[in-house]
Design a protein that fits this description.
38% of the residues lie in helices and 18% in strands. With 368 residues, it is α/β, with parallel strands linked by helices. α4 crosses α5.
């Protein structure tokens, strides 16, 4: 009797931040390569079909674009799981749908509020943890009086600021000035804010926000003839996407998750190059988080008892101590029934600096 053919597993990928070379293209490729390797190694019994949905989400639009994208992937394409969305605003916009449809969405957003039975997270930055890294680095550099530029009104900027206040309390720092900018500010807006903050005579400057303001931060500093030591959130990761963004924030330190010391990532990049006729992926946290999410989905596919989103979601909770491509050598992924935030380890975040169109790892031992 002729054997019936099997259908591929359908996996959705939501790209809600289009127009960012190094992110928009690298994240889906990382997801796909992990699933391709899982099939080739025999971990899963059939290939996975990746269904991409790229749309303009917040902060440029509103939450409806991501809600429509999630619904389309679930209802029309009947995917078993979704990689994405990427940003906090868009992840929170779909959270009620994730719980209603029970199709797990493994996102890279940083908020503490993306929590649910089918909401999983491998955060490309963390709105609660990053401020502690920033404060520890500032203290390590001998700074105490800190001025803040933050996105406002913005869920991301406000959550960052709340945890930065806690971190300053923890590390004995003082916030002496706060300047609010729109998530997509003009050069004039930023110039005015920088003038007011410079007048407070701080030891250092910190930026807390999504990252669109990065296009104007250095313009605002130059217009005020001001060059303080400065650090930002994982808005910094744009500098590892391409040279253009690295030059935009030249001189800034920032929190990142790309770590060239993680040989698991470098080995994966070599495997991709060999499997794709010399074509290379960019070494950054977009491709590493994509791969990590794809691998988690592959492991769950191999362990689910029946081929349904609910069973796959339950299988995700069995992943323990999985070495990660993202972060430093000590980063691993663990999920559990009441723990859907996967990255663990002290070095899953690091500090880098942007110089001359590229970034460099800054030696810094958190808590050391």
């Amino acid at each position: 009797m002729e054997q019936n053919p099997t259908s591929p597993y359908r996996i959705g990928v939501m790209v809600d931040l289009p127009g960012f070379p190094g992110l928009t293209d690298m994240f889906p490729l990382g997801v796909k390569f992990a699933l391709d390797e899982a099939y080739e190694s025999g971990l899963i019994d059939r290939p996975a079909q990746i269904i991409n949905n790229e749309h303009m989400g917040q902060p440029w639009g509103d939450g409806s674009a991501s809600r429509n994208a999630y619904r389309e992937l679930v209802e029309e394409h009947q995917v078993l799981a979704i990689a994405g969305p990427m940003s906090t605003d868009n992840c929170l916009a779909i959270l009620d749908q994730v719980e209603e449809y029970q199709v797990p969405a493994i996102t890279i957003c940083g908020t503490q509020e993306y929590v649910g039975k089918h909401a999983y997270n491998l955060p490309n930055g963390n709105l609660a943890d990053e401020p502690a890294y920033m404060a520890a680095w500032l203290k390590n550099q001998g700074h105490q009086r800190i001025a803040i530029v933050r996105d406002y009104p913005s869920r991301i900027g406000m959550e960052y600021y709340r945890f930065f206040e806690y971190a300053c309390q923890q590390f004995g720092l003082e916030i002496i000035g706060v300047g609010n900018v729109f998530p997509g500010p003009t050069e004039e807006d930023v110039t005015g804010v920088m003038a007011r903050l410079k007048a407070t005579n701080p030891d250092a400057l910190a930026y807390l926000g999504f990252g669109e303001a990065c296009r104007q931060l250095n313009n605002g500093l130059r217009n005020n003839d001001w060059a303080p030591e400065r650090i930002m959130t994982t808005a910094f990761i744009q500098a590892s996407y391409n040279e253009f963004f690295a030059k935009l924030i030249d001189g800034w330190h920032g929190i990142d998750q790309y770590d060239e010391r993680n040989t698991r990532l470098t080995n994966m990049l070599e495997r991709y190059k060999k499997a794709n006729d010399g074509k290379e992926l960019i070494s950054n946290s977009a491709v590493s988080t994509g791969y990590d999410i794809g691998l988690c989905i592959a492991i769950a596919l191999s362990r689910m008892e029946i081929a349904t989103p609910e069973s796959l979601s339950k299988a995700l909770e069995t992943i323990r101590m999985l070495p990660a491509m993202t972060g430093g050598p000590g980063t691993y992924i663990t999920f559990g029934p009441h723990d859907h935030r996967g990255f663990k380890g002290l070095d899953y975040l690091n500090v880098r600096v942007a110089r001359n169109g590229t970034t460099e790892l800054v030696p810094f031992e958190f808590g050391g």
